[in-house]
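Course assignment 3, question 2. Fill in each field.
Student: A.L.
Task: Predict the tertiary structure for the chain below.
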Amino acid sequence: MKRNLIISLFIVIILLLSQYKPILTGYARFFTVNNITVAENASIVVLSGGPFTRIPKALELYQAGYGERLLLTTLQPLNSKFAHLIPTNEEIAQEISKTLAIPATFESVPSLKGGATSTFDEAHDLLAYCTKEKIKHLIIVTDAFHTRRALYAFKKVFRGSNIKIEAAAALNDNHDEENWWRSDLGIAAYLLEPIKFAVYLLSDQNVSFIKND
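Answer field:
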């Protein structure tokens, strides 16, 4: 009896090890949402936290006709004393625009509290901005692992606003859904994401221990 149990457990372990890649890939794919559509008067917003992946994706969508306006959120500086030493999102966006030879103008969305510190903050900032600017269709651009949580946060904040919210996933050269467990950045992204998502399910405000990304 004991021997049969050991053999059965051994077989299960072997099967799990042989199937680890599809399991880990399927797990990562849960967090990715790509549901953009072409519509008139749509605006594309780049969430703060990863300008070198998100801004190129936004420009790609802009060039393809998915949006007429390009928006950037305003991030709270980690140390305001030295903030002037770091290029702003708008400055980075203009340089990327030049490098890709895609002429575009970016608008910075004012923050309601001196700079966003979470995706919820960005959602509240954008709700105020979209209401003021009469924007009715918003495409949020963020890293692939962050799209489901970002879309959830925005839909929660925008509930009842009649503003359509969609998400576009930006890719990077370091990791993706099929190899994230092979890099430190990928492991950090995909193992922390379910914890962050769980907290977002329980709140619609900024949570101090979840940084903006």
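Instructor remarks: The first helix runs from residue 2 to 18. The chain has seven helices and five strands.
Grade: pending
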